[in-house]
């Protein structure tokens, strides 16, 4: 009896999981796509989340910047983020990337790195 109950519960869990909507968050390189409109992505294609790329260290060192060159609090980008969130979207900040210095190598200590990450997350 217990074994049958366990199998039934597992089956219910699998069915529930199978009915969940797939999730994805396409990358948007905010330095390459100068005129991106996040709300348009949501309205035209149903995109509910985006990964904004890439928060890197820049010429100022341990200061997060988009692509290592655009201030993380650039008003045009922040306004796009606010509009997307107001429309029900969500934003992920991606670090790394192929070019420019990573924050991990630009910051001199774990505390400085944590502060840089916090800065990137607080403005987005």
UniProtKB/TrEMBL annotation:
Keywords: Signal. The keyword Cell division does not apply. InterPro entries: GH18_Chitinase. Residues 1-18 form the signal peptide. It comes from the Eukaryota. The keyword Transport does not apply. PANTHER family: BIFUNCTIONAL CHITINASE/LYSOZYME-RELATED, GH18 DOMAIN-CONTAINING PROTEIN-RELATED. This is Chitinase. The lineage of its organism: Eukaryota, Metazoa, Ecdysozoa, Arthropoda, Chelicerata.
């Amino acid at each position: 009896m217990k074994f049958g109950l366990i199998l039934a519960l597992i089956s219910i869990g699998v069915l529930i999981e199978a009915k969940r909507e797939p999730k994805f968050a396409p990358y948007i390189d905010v330095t390459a796509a100068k005129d991106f409109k996040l709300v348009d992505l949501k309205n035209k294609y149903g995109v509910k989340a985006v990964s904004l790329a890439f928060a890197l260290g820049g010429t100022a060192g341990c200061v997060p910047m988009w692509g290592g060159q655009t201030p993380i609090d650039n008003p045009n980008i922040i306004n796009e983020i606010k509009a997307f969130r107001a429309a029900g979207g969500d934003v992920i900040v991606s670090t790394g990337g192929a070019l420019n210095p990573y924050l991990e190598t630009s910051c001199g200590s774990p505390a400085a790195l944590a502060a840089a990450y916090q800065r990137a997350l607080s403005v987005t």
